[in-house]
Amino acid sequence: MKNTKVTLVPLTADDREQFILDNQWAFKYGAMIEFGERDNHIDDYGEIISRATIEKSIDNPQNETYRIMLDGEKVGGVILSIDTETHHNHLDILFVMPEAHSKGIGYGAWQAIEALHPETAVWETCTPYFEKRNIHFYVNKCGFQIDQFWCAHFQPEYDMFENEKHDPNEGPDEMFRFIKVMK
After folding, report:
1. Domain 7-181 fold
2. pTM for this predicted structure
3. 3-state secondary structure of 155
4. Which residues have a Cβ under 8 Å from the Cβ of 60 and sit 6 or more positions away?
5. Among 2, 8, 19, 49, which lies 20 to 30 A Cα-Cα from 58?
6. Is 51 helix (H, G, I), strand (E, B) or coil?
7. What residues does each domain of the chain span?
8. pLDDT tens readout for residues 125-148
9. What b-and-e string marks burial along 28-52, b requiring 16 or more CB atoms within 10 Å of the CB?
């Protein structure tokens, strides 16, 4: 297992727009590899993850947003939702730029996240069912377990963000939810 040393640097206002674009490209790239240029996972604007979803996550005062840096270069990003009372934290978004895949950057970022929040009791995240790289990463590299599979036969009443009603028009309709119990 590669152990690449990356750093997490807080997102700056002047990097916000590029962070959003990079995030969208990283997610769209995975769908394009799996399904081709156009399919029903990509929304009317050509995105897997909407600008509104990313902005909502960045703007949430409970969240922390970081750039993943390797040797002074921006190679990805992460948004964490931290609950200081329950210590049940959520990895809202983690992305690595496609040109930086398979270099241990995601795992290095995950190690940095765990070190940043050692008080965490449970981590939770999710990923679309077609993101085989992500499923492998979370389960086989980072030690998460698949907790739920959201699909037509099982739709959670609430979304992963802020216990808001799930919008079936937002994002892929089939997702894996992962948890990692730390304590």
Report:
1. Aminopeptidase (3.40.630)
2. 0.81
3. coil
4. 81, 161, 162
5. 2
6. helix
7. 7-181
8. 988 877 788 889 999 999 999 887
9. bbbbbeeeeeeeebbeeeebbbbee
